[in-house]
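Hey, resending since the last one bounced:
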Amino acid sequence: MLILEKKIPPLGSMLYSPMLDRRQQLTIRNPDFLAKIREIAKDVSAIFFRAEIDVPSDRSKPPTAAGFIKAFEEIQPEHTLVLNISKPEEEILREMKPKGRYNIKVAEKHGVRVIKGKIEDFYKLYETTARRQKITHRALSYFQNLVDILGEKDYVKVFSASAPDGENSNIEYRSTKQTESNSNKINSKPVSDFGFRISDFPPLASAVVVFYEERAIYLYGGSSEIQRNVMAPYKLHFEIIREAKKRGCKEYDFFGIAPSDDPNHPWAGVTRFKKQFGGYEVTILGSWDLIFSPTKYRIFKFAEKIRRH
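The structure tokens again:
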């Protein structure tokens, strides 16, 4: 189980365990674990421990019996969209919404290819997207630490999608054009038949994905405002699904959708995009706090509410 520490000056710090699975969410209820986490908290002056339980709310009970209370805010989304990728690729494509399948083919037509990306390139797109959608975003150092920590065990990978621009935008299409009988086949070549590498072109979409046991989780993403007609994000996620299947994953978690069909919800647009791939909606137990210093916790809670409003 991963336990992170975040400084909260001048109050102290908080401990945080993200995305706990079914086994781990049972561990945090264990008396031995509770005693150990209190020891750690004392050593680092932590005022509380936050456990983010990534288990459907209808399949497990909240950890209230172990002393946890519901967190006053969520670090990660409680509502998500999960795609079953244990099926053959052709079946996954067939179960997508028509627009999803069509846009993957559009991306293929324009020569969109997906390669291993750089965290710096990802961050530029992520920051641009956050500002465009007027939502808060994390610092580059957060992602660098994420990749450094989880990358040691190959739990995380940055993906980047690019395409030829201008007069070269149809080169891949002419060299790999599909026949009508082969319309469900999706190509995946980083180098074109004309010799250039796709990495010669700027990224149009990028994503940070975590692979853990039988699940792939789309944590963060971003897209460019240029060449939007080539539908790079659709090709990006389809190649992530392919990579997840190679790693033995059975689920692809799109990680965060609007809790309703409200067209004015801040996530309405990204929710429509994610639903083009199919899948089913899930509400998880979410974040729960184990408090060590009630007074400092109340101060922190009050300060966070002011900061967010």
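The two ends are 33 Å apart (CA to CA).

Sorry for the duplicate.
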